[in-house]
C-alpha cells in the first residue's frame, strides 16, 4: 500500500490562461475560495448568524467538515468515485470551516491539538479502509 497516496493532490482541473495550461487542485481551490469568501463577510453578519455563539459554533464546524470527510473516506475506501465538482464544493465548505474555527477564542495550542486529533482520526479511518480493501482482495 502506498500511504503517500492518501494525501496526494492528483485531482485537478485545468485552466487555460494566456495560452498556458494551469492545473489547480480541485479541493484546494475550493478551500481557498471558501476561506476568502468568509474573509470578505463583515463581523456584523457573524453576529447576526450567531456564529460567535459557542453553542452554535461546534455544530456548524461539524456540519461544514462532514461532507469533505465523507467524500474523502468513501473515495479512499473505494466505495465510490468522487468528481472534481464534489471535491471543489467540499473544499469550499472546509475553507469556510477553517476560517470560522480560526475566529473562535481558543489558545493556539488547543486549536492545534484539536486540528491534529481530527486529522489523525480521518487519516486512520482512511487507512483502515485501504487495509480492508487489501485484505478483501487477497482472499
Summarize the structure.
With 139 residues, the protein is mainly α. Helices cover 68% and strands 9% of the residues.
Write up this protein.
- With 139 residues, the protein is mainly α.
- Helices cover 68% and strands 9% of the residues.
- Strands 1-2 form a two-stranded antiparallel sheet.
- Strand 1 and strand 2 (20-25) form a beta hairpin.
- The longest helix has 31 residues, at 108-138.
List the main descriptive attributes of the protein structure presented here.
two-stranded antiparallel sheet, mainly alpha, single chain, 68% helix, disordered N terminus, 5 helices, globular
Q: Strands of the biggest beta sheet: in what spatial order? A: 1-2
| Overall pLDDT metric | 76
Structural class assignment: mainly alpha
Q: So what's the overall shape?
A: globular
How large is the share of residues in beta strands? 5-15%
Number of helices: 5
Fold topology:
Blueprint: E1 12-17, E2 20-25, H1 26-39, H2 43-49, H3 54-76, H4 84-103, H5 108-138
Antiparallel strand pairs: 1-2
Amino acid at each position: 500500500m502506498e500511504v503517500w497516496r492518501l494525501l496526494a493532490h492528483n485531482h485537478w482541473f485545468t485552466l487555460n490562461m494566456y495560452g498556458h495550461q494551469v492545473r489547480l487542485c480541485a479541493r484546494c481551490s475550493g478551500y481557498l475560495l471558501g476561506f476568502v469568501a468568509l474573509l470578505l463577510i463583515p463581523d456584523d453578519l457573524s453576529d447576526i448568524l450567531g456564529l460567535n455563539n459557542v453553542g452554535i459554533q461546534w455544530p456548524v464546524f461539524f456540519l461544514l467538515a462532514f461532507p469533505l470527510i465523507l467524500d474523502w473516506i468513501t473515495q479512499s475506501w473505494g466505495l465510490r468515485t468522487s468528481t472534481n465538482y464534489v471535491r471543489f464544493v467540499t473544499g469550499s465548505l472546509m475553507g469556510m470551516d477553517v476560517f470560522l474555527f480560526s475566529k473562535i477564542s481558543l489558545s493556539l495550542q488547543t486549536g492545534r491539538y484539536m486540528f491534529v486529533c481530527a486529522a489523525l482520526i480521518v487519516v486512520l479511518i482512511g487507512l483502515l479502509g485501504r487495509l480492508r480493501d487489501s485484505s478483501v482482495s487477497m482472499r
